[in-house]
Amino acid sequence: MIDFNRHPSSYRHWQLQLDGEVAQLRMNVDPAHPYQPGYELKLNSYDLSVDMELADVIQRLRFGHPEVKVVVVASAQERAFCAGANIWMLAESTHPFKVNFCKFTNETRLSLEDASRHSGLKSICAVHAACAGGGYELALACDEIHLVNDNNSAVSLPEVPLLGVLPGTGGLTRIIDKRKVRRDRADVFCTMAEGLRGKRALSWGLVDAIWQKSQFTEKVQARAKELAAQLPHKSNKGVSLPTINGKATDEHQAQRGFAYSHVEVAIDAGKRMATITLHGPKAAQPSTGEAYEAAGPSVWALQCMRELDDAILQLRFGYEEIGLIALRTRGDRAALLQVEKDLVKNQSNWFVNEILQQMARTCRRFDLNARSMFAMVDADSCCAGVFLELTMGCDRVYLLDDARAQLALGPLSDGLLPMTHGITRLQNRFLKDPSHAQKLAKEQPKMSPGEADEQGLCTFLLDPIDWDDETRIALEERASLSPDALTGMEASLRFGGAENCDSKIFGRLSAWQNWIFTRPNATGEEGALTRYGAPESAKFDWRRT
Amino acid sequence: MSTVDLEAKIPNNVGLRDNKRLLMALEKWQPAFLRWWKDVGPSDFNRNDIYLRTAIGVGQGGWAHFDYVKMPDYRWGIFLADPVADRKIHFGDNIGAPVWNEVPGEMRNRLRRLIVTQGDTEPASVEQQRMLGHTAPSLYDMRSLFQINVEEGRHLWAMVYLLHTHFGGDGRDEADALLDRHSGDADNPRILQAFNYPIDNWVDFFCFTTFTDRDGKYQLASLAESSFDPLARTTQFMLTEEAYHMQTGENGLGRIIKRTAELHAAGKDPQTEGAIPLEMLQRYVRHWASASMDLFGGEDSTNAAEAFASGLKGRYREGDGIYKDPKALQQSYSLEVPTSDGRIETKDIPLRRAMNAVLLDAYIADCKRIVERWNRELEKLGVSFRFSLPDHKFNRHQGVYAGFRFSPEGKLIDAATWEAHLTEWLPKQSDRDYVKSCMHPVYERGKYANYIAPPSQGANNQPVDCEYVKFN
Lengths: 545, 472
Fold this sequence. Notes:
The complex is a heterodimer.
Chain A: E1 14-19, E2 22-27, E3 45-46, H1 48-64, E4 70-75, E5 80-82, E6 84-85, H2 87-92, H3 95-118, E7 122-127, E8 130-132, H4 134-141, E9 144-148, E10 154-156, H5 159-163, H6 171-178, H7 183-189, E11 196-197, H8 198-203, E12 209-211, H9 216-229, E13 247-248, E14 257-259, E15 263-268, E16 273-279, H10 289-295, H11 300-318, E17 324-330, H12 333-345, H13 350-367, E18 372-377, E19 383-384, H14 385-393, E20 396-400, E21 407-408, H15 425-429, H16 434-443, E22 446-447, H17 449-454, E23 460-462, H18 464-479, H19 483-494, H20 501-518, H21 520-523, H22 528-531
Parallel strand pairs in A: 2-4, 3-6, 4-7, 5-8, 7-9, 8-10, 9-12, 16-17, 17-18, 18-20, 19-21, 20-23
Antiparallel strand pairs in A: 1-2, 10-11, 13-14, 14-15, 15-16, 21-22
Helix pairs in contact in A: 1-3, 3-13, 3-20, 4-6, 6-20, 11-13, 13-14
Chain B: H1 20-40, E1 49-55, E2 64-70, H2 108-128, H3 139-166, H4 168-180, H5 202-223, H6 229-265, H7 278-294, H8 302-309, E3 332-338, E4 344-350, H9 355-380, E5 405-406, E6 412-413, H10 415-425, H11 429-438, E7 469-470
Antiparallel strand pairs in B: 1-2, 1-7, 3-4, 5-6
Helix pairs in contact in B: 1-3, 1-4, 2-3, 2-4, 3-4, 3-6, 5-6, 5-7, 5-9, 6-9
């Protein structure tokens, strides 16, 4: 299994310095330790190994250091803030890896924005020297960008002119939708390999402040303190996140699946299918904020979501050919709903809030899987609360018409677990009848299979005598379809209604970047990405599509 | 042949009189340039009459005019080498196509950056050297210093001409910025770090003109091959002026060596006589040679490959047809690369990516010839000391050798060995203090400071004791 666990004591690429309300995070990528051998991470360029640590930093700041209100993101290297994603890594990677890498980095940057929005943790990006491509996209994910005003420091998105691809981590979307840079200026900026410096970067809105080199550190730190003073104090004592350790089900055959304490993944490589089984709380869970803090990170709501998070990443990076995920749930519905009631009751507690935010992020990561997802709600199911949310995140819901297979909406379904595009899964499901979504969210009914079908919560209600056959056929049929067409179709159907900045980032990535990545103009023998750094220049097929 | 307009406010051979828009832009820039010269140019000598060479044309021989002139009145002009009819691109991907007289759109930003980076070094060196007049070892040397300063100023004009002519509003902004940045300014420094340290003694100055100006020569020579014809023609003419700067350095160091060697031959201790010991000078040579090699950029460089492929920068003397493969696609370059476990590996990289290394090789060969000339002089004087150029891997802060320790002979060593030999290899504080203590001005006609021998001949066939600088 791929180890996504990281710990500050063994970071290779980042330096985290904690000092009260303001933390300093410095990128200092060790060129000699890429994710895979074959390239060097020069000029603070990054790959998955660098981003895994960044994801860990953000998680640890949120859970482990609630006293931190502002994190200043800077570079420890003189010659570059960050040169972006490592081009040699991209050129060498398989297409699926590239896409999953981009998706992971997007989720990491969104978690930084999510922390700003929901955890009172703001970020200031302090940029000196070159800040190119993914480097600027990291800056864009921060709340403020401060740039050294000298001849060398520039922000840029050179992907189009240099590599013939697009910025893959939300750069195009964020300059327009987040920073609201005027579209014509954005057009100029995105075709200018060297980017913009100083006053023009500021006046075009690509950065928030510019400072002379000699005053830079002082000004940035002063701003960080000023920002921190405006934010409420959460707590001085954090919760230390332990590693998430999945174990191969059969130690001789990792491809058979893996399991955690609340999450199991069974792999059927022949059918290109994985079954994820989620387990509800078994032991008693805390009922107050203080009790949650005392109990720490092993509480069910947090542990289960972190495990599911890891399982999703394992499937994405380690099981490319698994095209279909069947979702099953197990456990006690009442106990699960009680947990959620207690979480909602105590959501003003910082730790409870973080748990709720983690649940929301994991559900979104689940929605964003580029795999077909079918929920199988059978007699032993625990289809309630967050498990019902995940069920509604699936492309189809198969429900067994058996009195034991009850569905129960919980208190989190009314907006605490928003989808990437900002609406609830109920709203997303009932676009034609918003009042129905509203009614269900308010009343939080417990439903028999028949009632659930009536309320529109299942795709097919199956008679027990048909269950085995119908589900088998559905799964086999799905697994036979074109994986590319399915990815596109599912991404189009899963997210109904209006888009927002976050959903555009993923939508644009799947629709445009993934297409461009596979085009000869980028990755063909004479393509710009292939030819980057090669002796010969790229040759394009000039036909516009 | 282009027409030279010497009567104009800005002497030129680019038909400025008929290009009103450009004329206006340059005339607007001119006062800012003069302000810059007075503020950060040579300190305190602007009222003196100096025997200077002024470019008045570009023809073979007779392009220069010598006379006494006050530096602020120097006629900085714009001169391009004469165009070659039907010149074709002679290297890279576009080989055989006509050269460009206008900047191709897709190359505009890259080319602008190239010109700005080159242009930035010209005023930077003037700023670095601004205090040197106060310790000139003779009027002859003072003249040489100011000659170099005004010509670096003219090179700035040459780059500004290109920026104003071919790069629109951005080009004009960049031209202004060339005067706004200042060497060593904490907030607005010169682009290349090597140009942000003051040159405050004449040993450093002669080393700088020998080694760092020679880097300039090779950079200019690679631009002189450019497919962008105005750039090629501008830099071709700059090279004729640059030759004098390097000669000043080589001869200056040669004269310091000669003085010390003569004292040796007479059985005297150079240091008690106020001359510069040869071992000390060798340390300065190591420092400046290695620092100048850093200016060539990474040995394995995708930027260098791009610049070659697109026809912006050629190899040294590419146009003379000395390279077998003008596309540089068939060959590779063997680069010595240090490994993390303390070995040196030979790695073959595509030749185009090694263009900086190729240019550096030509530079090193050139530097070796200079060192040999000094050594021949030492041999003639019966002194056994011999100078050597440090290996290209020694004391590097850019490129593949940065971060590793090498001896001057090019042996990979550990940090402890490096520390133990540091003061033996590179100038130490006591060297700097001693050199500084030798720096006393000699303004008397025909007299020379104690650490330097007189030149073998004067400037422009004038006598050695000519009054090159008249103090009014």
